[in-house]
Specification:
62% helix; mainly alpha; two-stranded antiparallel ribbon
């Protein structure tokens, strides 16, 4: 049952029109499954969020500037998963 729930979350997240919210959704979902740091490259994160590397790069910079995460070339450390979750779930005009 947990697999079905996770699949439904993935489908819901991929329907978000804003790439940065899809990326935030992937990060907050992945942190629940694994742990920190996340061994993801920007390309891998882009594939998971259906986003370009340019969109991933911009979103990671935005999240870093807001204090939500830190990242290197091959790993991401989520500092504030709750803030990331709130951002991912926010409405389009927030």
């Amino acid at each position: 049952m947990m697999s079905v729930e996770t699949l439904l979350e993935v489908v819901h997240d991929l329907q978000k029109p804003q790439a940065d919210r899809r990326i935030a959704s992937v990060l907050q979902r992945t942190i629940r499954i694994g742990g920190a740091p996340l061994p993801l490259t920007q390309i891998e994160l882009g594939i998971m969020a259906n986003a370009s590397r340019k969109q991933v790069n911009a979103a990671l910079k935005q999240f870093k500037d807001a204090g939500r995460l830190t990242h290197t070339c091959r790993s991401i450390i989520v500092n504030d998963v709750n803030a990331l979750r709130r951002y991912a779930e926010a409405e389009m005009n927030d």
